[in-house]
Design brief:
Layout (H helix, E strand, L loop, with lengths): L14 H15 L5 H10 L4 H5 L23 H5 L7 E6 L3 H11 L5 H17 L7 E4 L4 H7 L3 H13 L7 E3 L12 H7 L4 E3 L13 E8 L4 H11 L8 E8 L1
Parallel strand pairs: 1-6, 2-5, 5-6
Antiparallel strand pairs: 3-4
């Protein structure tokens, strides 16, 4: 019976009542080319009608750099102030509100693996919404430090990225390892402290081959949450430090922002 309940609120739901909402949401997020893929993703999400309509979607007008919601789609003050040569852009699907924090905690710290598929589907919705005109040759993820891996038993970003790769057909390859066990964001003192803590936090995996025998022109970097951008920027810098990827464009995609 549990498998027929909403993963968010726990209530049971009927598929027929969801159809109009799924169709309406898919039309709002897609164009005619991506509508079928988006509708299929929404149709299989285990969310009831109430939770589906309450998804905290970021609006269509966002900063072209970091994906922050902006009234006119202009570049935000942070991106004007902190230009980055390694990360081309970030996009996110949902605002990181109380609902998002609750769902992330349930996945990361309580080990509810069912949410991995839901998050991968949400990430794929974000991909079809924001990156439908871009061709990526490779997907990679922001890795977890081995100490936190021991605590949690799994790397949440890797699990989501692998499933996302299966959905979209973009090959996945783990490019990086995390060599610095940084404090949780809640324990850090703002953007500057976060940026400093992330310096040299990642390094290439040993004996890194060129994946699939071809140098990718554009890599998509996956994480669950984008906050200040320090983490994905540190990852992008580490990837660009690898000779085979020095000229590769890197964009990031997260579920929450």
């Amino acid at each position: 019976m549990r498998d027929k309940c909403c993963l968010s609120c726990g209530r049971s739901w009927q598929s027929k009542s969801l159809l109009p909402i799924q169709q309406q949401l898919a039309r709002a997020l897609a164009d005619e080319n991506t509508y079928p893929a988006l509708f299929r993703l929404l149709a299989r999400m285990r969310l009831c009608a109430d939770c589906l309509v309450r998804l905290p979607l970021l609006g269509p007008l966002v900063c072209p750099g970091c994906g922050r919601g902006m009234p006119s789609g202009e570049t935000c003050a942070d991106c004007r102030r902190y230009a980055d040569e390694h990360l081309k852009q970030n996009r996110s699907l949902l605002s990181y509100n109380d609902w998002g924090r609750s769902m992330i905690r349930q996945f990361k710290y309580r080990g509810d693996e069912r949410l991995g598929d839901l998050f991968a589907d949400l990430l794929a919705v974000g991909y079809y919404r924001h990156y439908r005109g871009i061709r990526f040759q490779l997907v990679t993820h922001v890795p977890l430090h081995e100490a936190r891996m021991r605590d949690r038993g799994f790397d949440q970003a890797e699990r989501i990225a692998v499933r996302f790769s299966e959905i979209t057909g973009i090959p996945f390859f783990p490019l990086l390892t995390r060599i610095k066990n940084t404090d949780k964001l809640s324990k850090q003192g703002g953007r500057l402290a976060r940026w400093k803590s992330m310096q040299a936090a990642f390094s290439p995996r040993e004996r890194m081959p060129v994946p699939y025998g071809k140098r990718p022109e554009h890599i998509l970097l996956i994480d669950d949450i984008y906050t200040t951008g320090s983490t994905v920027r540190a990852c992008a810098a580490a990837i660009h430090g690898m000779p085979e990827f020095a000229q590769t464009a890197i964009s990031s995609l997260s579920i929450f922002r």
